[in-house]
Amino acid sequence: MSESRAPFETQPAALETAPAPLGSRPKRGVSLFWRTFFFLSLLLIGCIIAWLQTFRALEFEPRAIQSAQQLASLVNLTRAALVHSDSIARVSLVKTLADEEKVRIALREPDDVYLPYDTDTLNRGVTEALQQRLGRDTVVARAVNGTPGLWIGFSIDGDLYWLQTDPSRIGPVTGATWLIWLATAAILSLTGAALIARLINHPLKKLQFAASRVREGDFDATQLSESVATSEIREVNIGFNRMAQRLSKIEQDRTLMLAGISHDLRTPLARLRLETEMSVADPQAREHMTADIEQVNAIIDKFLDYARPDHTDLQRVNLHLVVEAAVFALGSDASVQINIAVPHEIDVLGDAVELQRVFSNLLENARRYGRDPKTGDVQIDIAAKPRERWVLIKLRDHGKGVLPELLEQLTQPFFRGDSSRTAATGTGLGLSIVDRAITRMGGRFALANSSTGGLAAHIKLPRAIN
Fold this sequence. Notes:
The chain is of the alpha+beta class. It is built from 10 helices and 12 strands. The strands form 3 sheets. A 5-stranded antiparallel β-sheet has the order 1-5-4-3-2. Strands 7-9-10-12-11 form a 5-stranded mixed β-sheet. A two-stranded antiparallel ribbon has the order 6-8. It is rod-shaped and about 150 Å long.
């Protein structure tokens, strides 16, 4: 984990390029609701399209045969009427057909220009069926001399005629009614897909919320309904509730056990301290024994801090005051120089006691392990900068740093780095406590080697905005 792109300065501007561990978040995928809705919608739309294509395919041949029968009957009746009528009645018949049946009879001239009626499968089927019924010399056209329509060429005693009729007689099922029904089916299908996706997703959303509350240590907000109708969801809810109850009981038992351990250990330690001060005559031995007792007390404190409950009530905290309190608690040491560049007006959402414990642990870690290899002094730089809804904090020393492959392991409980960072005694819980505390407050914590030497701790906390 390199920090070569983010050299540290004590000015807040140096935090403009925060390290990747805090800036990067896993890409959020599509939610389960939208995934389910999308796939169900694709399935339903595919079924509608398949049904429509099947209907059209099965409709073509019967409709073509039926339309050809009707047209052939119309041509045959017109031919018979013209053959068996005299010249005067024929004129009246042609006029009646044009006015009432929308059928026009015209002479077919040799120089007539026509377009074949073959634009689609249905039209070609109608043409073939008409030729089978009326003869192969029958001509079916969709336009004659530039006039569109359904034109059928036939003959009466060697005379050629055109019969023009409305092409909608054999057209496929179209119109606004068809589109309305198709749109209604699509809307109902999508609505059903949304309802199904919601029915699947709703219990999982509740489970997700309950799991997040368990993760935060809030066991009171995790009760799921055990009377739902779906047997699988009911079994999951019952199992989750039992698990949450057991975790809550374990948490309570742990708290009581740690309180008992603290009391049971510190009472004899206090007596040992008193006996040491009163009974040990050798000042050097007394000093070493007292230091050992203090170290055991400190170890107990570390264990209690690490085992602290996960749930934290977030409040508005002034970051500058917390940092100054932690620096003051570190005490005065001529070999330790601390540079603070935290604006007074920055407030974060967190717990003041927890935050002070975080900075105290980081400062103690830097004081122990962050000494300059050349001078032996400790220089610690603390800077903070607000960015949108977050506050970025950077605390670094100027020591040797840590091997890159060990960085991610430093926040693991009881882990120690290389030999340069184990010279002082401790529990190996300091950075683990920091990581847990920052996570409890909704922030993020990462460690990185500085390009100019030393180890840098990066903290990202929620910003308290008015």
